[in-house]
From TrEMBL:
GO terms for MF: thioredoxin-disulfide reductase (NADPH) activity
Stated name of the protein: NAD(P)/FAD-dependent oxidoreductase
Residue span, FAD/NAD(P)-binding domain: 4-282
Catalytic activity: [thioredoxin]-dithiol + NADP(+) = [thioredoxin]-disulfide + NADPH + H(+)
Keyword Transcription regulation: no
Keywords, alphabetical: Flavoprotein, Oxidoreductase
InterPro entries referenced in this protein's UniProt entry, alphabetically: FAD/NAD-bd_sf (IPR036188), FAD/NAD-binding_dom (IPR023753), Ferredoxin-NADP_redctase_2 (IPR050097)
SUPFAM superfamilies, A to Z: FAD/NAD(P)-binding domain
Keyword field contains Oxidoreductase: yes
Length: 311
């Protein structure tokens, strides 16, 4: 078995940032990553100071190199189970799909979330390219273009009002039903087009989104479309350990990412669906500092116990 101070589950911005802080604190750290980052379809990431426009895969490559440079282990694999080891202090066994077992004093879960997209032909193929979610991440790149937003929920309407910041030509496709008259009036007041009727597919020509097709055969020309996917946290490890889940369906944690289970922290999208790459990195750093402080407390208690026993 491999013994670590901390095992980080998830090698995205949150997990690698935490590992960097912990390895620089001279902790023995392993980062276990399945190699399926949420932002893999995106060509570039944005809003990360000094790294704006960098491909997401390049950020992760650089992060892995930095962590490894300080002695951290990068483990390619899928965590299937985490078990608490009996004892006074928190101890864990992390089991991997290939049968390996890692032992850790503390656990940081940074496994992210998955986006459940609308069941519309073309959506999954264009995801992260010209079918987008976050206007702060990609709005500037499609500024002043004919844009669309699909959905009839309050969140979709809010999204349309937000996307309007980047273009004067925005259309909201109400594929799931009508909206209240006052809500429609607010859209019209900002010159946001409203199209009623189910959406049947995204129209793509020469590997470029060109429009949105409706059930009645109409095609509304658009060059990029935004949706609000349903975000589902990859929190099976956390729920398996018995971490408290809040009323919102996400694992509850304090400002440092400490969960209700001693020795277990979270960072990034697994607990914070709104976290962008730079936010997730910051959360990983904050969690790492808290974890190291917790380990120091345990180290002091152990040293005192040993000292008093021999003096």
């Amino acid at each position: 078995m491999n013994e670590y101070d901390v095992v980080v589950i998830g090698g995205g911005a949150a997990g690698l940032s935490a590992a960097l802080v912990l390895t620089r604190a001279r902790r023995h750290v392993a980062v276990v990553d399945s190699g399926a980052p949420r932002n893999a379809p995106a060509r570039e990431m944005h809003g990360f100071l000094s790294r704006d426009g960098l491909p997401p895969a390049e950020l992760l490559r650089l992060g892995r190199e930095e962590v490894a440079g300080y002695g951290g282990d990068i483990v390619a694999g899928l965590v299937t189970d985490v078990r608490r080891v009996e004892g006074a202090a928190p101890r864990f066994e992390v089991r991997l799909e290939d049968g390996d077992v890692l032992r850790a004093r503390r656990i940081l879960v940074a496994s992210g979330l998955r986006d459940e997209l609308p069941d519309i032909p073309g959506v999954s193929e264009r995801w992260g390219r010209d079918l987008l979610h976050c206007p702060y991440c990609h709005g500037y790149e499609v500024r002043d273009q004919p844009l669309g937003v699909i959905g009839a929920t309050a969140e979709a309407v809010q999204h349309a009002q937000l996307v309007r910041q980047w273009s004067h030509d925005v259309v909201l496709f109400l594929d799931a039903g009508p909206i209240a008259p006052d809500v429609r009036e607010a859209l019209v007041a900002r010159a946001i087009g409203v199209v009623d009727g189910p959406v049947t597919r995204l129209v793509v020509e020469d590997d470029q989104l060109t429009g949105v097709e409706l059930a009645d055969g109409r095609v509304v020309r658009r060059t990029a479309v935004f949706v609000r996917p349903r975000m589902v946290p990859d929190n099976r490890v956390l729920t398996g350990l018995g971490c408290t889940v809040g009323d919102n369906g996400w694992v509850a944690a304090d400002a440092t990412g400490r969960t209700s289970v001693a020795g277990v922290w979270v960072a990034g999208n697994v607990a914070d669906p709104r976290a962008q790459v730079i936010t997730a990195a910051g959360e990983g750093s904050a969690a790492a500092i808290a974890i190291n402080a917790d380990l120091v407390d345990e180290d002091v208690a152990t040293a005192l116990h040993d000292y008093r026993r021999t003096n």
